[in-house]
From TrEMBL:
It is an enzyme of class 6 (ligase). Its EC number is 6.3.2.9. Gene3D superfamilies: Mur ligase, C-terminal domain, Mur-like, catalytic domain, NAD(P)-binding Rossmann-like Domain. SUPFAM superfamilies: MurCD N-terminal domain, MurD-like peptide ligases, catalytic domain, MurD-like peptide ligases, peptide-binding domain. It catalyses: UDP-N-acetyl-alpha-D-muramoyl-L-alanine + D-glutamate + ATP = UDP-N-acetyl-alpha-D-muramoyl-L-alanyl-D-glutamate + ADP + phosphate + H(+). ATP binds at G108, S109, N110, G111, K112, T113, T114. It is found in: Cytoplasm. Residues 306-418 form the Mur ligase C-terminal domain. The gene is murD. Cell wall formation. Catalyzes the addition of glutamate to the nucleotide precursor UDP-N-acetylmuramoyl-L-alanine (UMA). This is UDP-N-acetylmuramoylalanine--D-glutamate ligase. GO terms for molecular function: UDP-N-acetylmuramoylalanine-D-glutamate ligase activity. Transmembrane segments: none annotated.
Amino acid sequence: MKIVVLGGGESGFGAAYLAKKKGLEVFLSDKGLIKEDYKKLLLDAGIEYEEGKHDEDRILAANWIIKSPGIPKKAEIISKINKKGIRLSSEIEFASEFTDAKIIAITGSNGKTTTTSLIYHILKNDDLKVGLGGNIGKSFAKQVADENFDYYVLEVSSFQLDDIQNFRPYISLLLNLSQDHLDQYNYNYEEYALAKFRIAENQENDNFFIYNKDDEMSMNLLEKLEIKAKMIPFSLKEKLKEGGYLTEDKMVVKLHDEFSMKIDELALVGNHNVANSLAASIAGKILKISNESIRNSLTTFQAVEHRLEQVAEINGVRFINDSKATNVNATYYALESMKQPTVWIVGGTDKGNDYTEIEDLVKRKVKAIVCLGLDNQKIIDFFKEKKELIYSTSSMEDAVKTAKSLSKSGDTVLLSPCCASFDLFENYEDRGNKFKKEVLK
């Protein structure tokens, strides 16, 4: 069997490495330049590769093509592959064919990384043999090649789910839906939402699907879709006979028996993190992890970098890095959890954002807006009638200096961009790291 891998990053290298280890003929092609450390890994593993171009004849002669999630599905080479009818898979699909481990897969518009990391922490804390992968951490495929885990906890994006055929998690979680990446889904919210629901499409009645009963789009689509897995909801708004819910000061999970815990004991703050903790606890209960062990994990978990990360308090001003907030809904959660007057740093590559969702929160919580991007006009036009203090900057240094000058003791400076980072930065991590560096300077 001839395998071609498109993309030479973490997931691309991992898929090629797994193919090689399984004795398959493999070739990796990247239209851009491959980073030096991945080139060395490819050479060490004896994997043939090309960079800076695509050898179309060779690619289109493959039996199975593995596509990295960063390659747009509208790319010319993808159209040619689809026209020829060659099987096209994501790394998670490819790797899942080579493991019997139980997979816990998490998707949603927001909270994926936090919830994935939290479930991994719950399993690891209970001494289970578990790997962490997908959209986070090390390549899932490389771990399948080298490790012998009983469980994998995978953060899964809609782009990875676009390219599955047989992927069947033991437990799947759909945390929430909001308008994101619409530029890749013909600006159609339902098309994007249905891509997320693919996480459950191959599940059978011995599998589990955890979903958000408060999420309007999820509930609308569940009326139309046939989910075979056992469905378990969570809600912050209503008491449930089975699943997870919130009372005044406690979170409760009813499954087999009852698990409850005071909200103020949770390591994570904010309502959205109560929802994430409920979803993670349900997964723990399905896996028969004890109440005591789940409670211990929820109190000892450390928040994910670049997600409402407390950077420093300087002259009474708190600086918070929420660079991972690359859509409006993620920033909604960040602004909702702000307790002090906030100077808000926002901007980047717009993905079809509609800012009306956060309009009221901005009016109530934000004292000044600092735009950070090559083109800030859309944000300025939307908020100029609503906020007097709006500033335009095109570098992190300027953005932090401006935010500092606008803040006083008792305020918070929040980087929560609503946008992708690619106009000025390599990725959201680069943006968050540069913010922290400027703050500490």
